[in-house]
Amino acid sequence: MNISTENTIAQPVGTTLERYIMRKQAEFPFATGELSQLLRDIALAGKIVNREVNRAGLTSIIGSMGQQNVQGEAQQKLDVEANIRFIRALTNGGEACAVLSEEEDDIIHTGNCQGKYVVAIDPLDGSSNIDVNISIGTIFSIYRRVTPVGESATRADFLQGGRQQVAAGYILYGSSTMLVYTTGHGVAGFTYENSLGEFFLSHPSITIPTSGTVFSCNEGYWFDYPQYVRDYLMQCKREGQSGRYVGSLVADYHRNLLTGGIYLYPPTGKNPNGKLRVLYEAFPLAFLIEQAGGRAESGTGPILDIVATEFHQRTPLFVGSPALVERLLTETEVAPKEEAIEQNHA
Questions:
Q1: Where does substrate bind (predicted)?
Q2: Distance from C-alpha of 13 to C-alpha of 8, rounded to nearest angstrom
Q3: Assigned fold of 214-345
Q4: Which of 70, 129, 179, 194 has the highest Cβ tally under 10 A?
């Protein structure tokens, strides 16, 4: 068999997530494999949730549970399914001593008191879109614990601040399933290959474009937005920019990360402190966007500088291409800051 024939019938399939993580382990002088295993555990749970999402319409796991989660939001069946899957994977993996989930009120102790890490997670973002087959996702954030190994995790382990994250990312369940994450050394994306059951490196070094022509927000709240946000959006429309919003944070964020744009979830009269959760939505996405060259702001300062005092604390979020976020903050007349929002950055 000649070389040209070999090249056409045995093309490389690429670098697996497992192999990529092993190669990158040297970037952590304190790591001895635990963080790598933790990322693999998250990926495993993501594969299982991907399977459930793909067959949701053929099983009985679509629709509402008929109850609310700790956030006061209608809980979908797949919310519960994803929550169980991720907690189980993180418990069985042995590296996470505790988990904080959007679906639970308090810390979930895994029984792995020797574990060196804690994980904050939104198991299934955008779950209200499940029944209509729109992309949804998982968002996660990882911290190295501050309490002594061997003891139970406490609030202090989760309330360290966004700049203490050692890894963060998301899994997008869409036309293809992708895992995108950072460990503070750039951003990499992996696409799931169903037939092989593996994530393969597809986006080795993701950098968000400096600017873009897309804005993503729920304009149904237009009259409840602060004036400076409405001024900015009117400016975008006059320039012919495109409004793109599907109502799944991960999906809208992912599009803007790859093509350039800005995602806005401003404060409103109903939610003057914003609606998105700091620990397991805003912090991980802000960490990742900064590693990709973008910006994430609350309207009173960088998201990663928020002082979180509660597990389910909320914040406004403006995240995306740096030029667009800068323009929102400086080229429009920013309204007086709400006192409640300022307290986030106390």
A1: 125-128, 218, 245, 263-265, 275
A2: 13
A3: D-Maltodextrin-Binding Protein; domain 2 (3.40.190)
A4: 179
